[in-house]
Design goal:
Structural class: alpha/beta
Order of helices and strands: HEEHEHEEH
Helix content: 25-40%
Shape: globular
Strand order of the largest sheet: 1-3-2-4-5
Length: about 140
């Protein structure tokens, strides 16, 4: 009986994992396509999202990051698929000095690490707290 109740949710979860979660969303770009680790030194703010396509926690974090990216398009969000882009993921850890975790978001601004979140800390409201909306 319980299996019958869980089957639809499990089916959705596995199909999302096969597709890599929401990593195909246009609001979140690929760090590799944006210039790789050299893009970390760019001027202005940006978020680096380290995402594992095999982890249900990372899938939930991807949805939170996607929501943030859609609400705040002025803040570039660059994704690293940690399983498929292990060398890039390691280069980010080395360049930033932030120990690798997944899921993980690293806030970079003008080449400096300003903050980082991992696992259950990766929530839309936590990301928005880093970038308070400007008052009119």
């Amino acid at each position: 009986m319980y299996l019958a109740l869980l089957r639809p949710a499990f089916s959705l979860w596995t199909s999302l994992l096969r597709r890599g979660g929401s990593h195909g969303n246009d609001a979140v770009a690929s760090l590799a396509e944006a210039g790789g680790a050299s893009a970390l030194a760019a001027a202005g703010p940006r978020l680096i999202f380290k995402h594992s396509t095999a982890c249900p926690f990372s899938l939930m974090a991807a949805e939170q990051v996607r929501r943030f990216a859609e609400r705040r398009p002025e803040v570039p969000v660059l994704r690293v698929l940690v399983l498929q882009e292990r060398a890039l993921s390691n280069a980010v850890a080395e360049a930033t000095g932030v120990l690798h975790e997944s899921p993980q978001v690293i806030w970079m601004e003008d080449g400096e690490v300003r903050g980082h979140l991992s696992h259950g800390e990766v929530r839309t409201d936590a990301l928005e707290a880093w970038f308070p909306a400007e008052e009119a």
